[in-house]
Amino acid sequence: MLFESLLEPFLAFAQLGNLPGNTANASALATYVLPELPYAYDALEPSISKQIMELHHTKHHQAYVTNLNKALEASAVALSQGSIADFAAQLSAIRFNGGGHINHALFWQNLSPASSPEASPDAAPSLQAAIASAWGSFDEFRSAFTAELLGIQGSGWGWLVKEKGTGSLRIVTLANQEAVVVGDTPILGVDMWEHAYYLQYLNGKAAYVENIWNIVNWKTSEERFLGGRDDAFASLRATM
Ligand SMILES: [Fe+2]
């Protein structure tokens, strides 16, 4: 499970009984950091503006990371003090902000400048073959994925995932910052929160989705399709 992976350092810490009941030791917990983008803030223009990318990364994603670390530390303190009530009170924040960190970290890697080789569907031959097998053609898949994205009510995410067990491809949508945590491998995700497009597209959500197809990193998608869940989430390890 993804959250087990996300919380590994925390759980190991707790299981070792290494929680002597003070905040100084709780603050020794591993923390999560904002990952650097693999491209410049203006590299995805005109599909996504520099202003959006900079705010999205340095403000929105950073806030999820900061609040995740705060909630993990507060929950460790609560556990060390034997307060299950205070511990349980942090779980919602861990789920929301942990999901926000996971989703955005995966999303940045799903994008690439339109002029880069990675942005060509040819960079994902195995995945493209599987998509054609599942949906009939890439265009059919793109239409289906687009419809799912535009059908999200409120804030959320759309994902192409590789299903646990069967290895089949399917499209899932998740509300708010729910993350792909049910065993599936996330291959391609699209952020459908207004903060991802509103400054540039206003209420033109369909145009945002249309243009994002120009900047999909198909190399990343291919690697996730061929790999396992651990590969997809490798960059999400905490720093100790
Ligand atoms: Fe976002």
Task: Write a brief structural summary.
It is found in: Mitochondrion matrix. The chain has 240 residues and is mostly helical.
Structure description:
With 240 residues, the chain is mainly alpha-helical. 51% of the residues lie in helices and 9% in strands. It has a three-stranded antiparallel beta sheet, with helices on both faces. Helix 4 (50-80) runs antiparallel to helix 6 and helix 7 (125-135) crosses helix 11. The radius of gyration is 19 Å and the shape is globular. The protein starts with a helix and ends in an 8-residue tail after the last helix. Residues 9-24 have low confidence and may be disordered. Fe (ii) ion (FE2) binds next to helix 4.
Give the SSE layout.
Blueprint: H1 2-6, H2 8-15, H3 23-26, H4 50-80, H5 84-89, H6 91-109, H7 125-135, H8 138-150, E1 156-162, E2 169-175, E3 185-191, H9 198-201, H10 205-212, H11 218-226, H12 229-232
Antiparallel strand pairs: 1-2, 1-3
Helix pairs in contact: 4-6, 7-11
The structure holds fe (ii) ion.
Number of helix segments? Answer: 12
**Intertermini distance:** 21 Å
Q: Which ligands accompany this protein?
A: fe (ii) ion
Question: Rg to the nearest angstrom?
Answer: 19 Å
Strand line-up in the sheet with most strands: 2-1-3
Mean pLDDT: 89
Low-confidence stretches: 9-24
Shape: globular
Defining key terms:
240 residues; globular; 12 helices; binds fe (ii) ion; mainly alpha
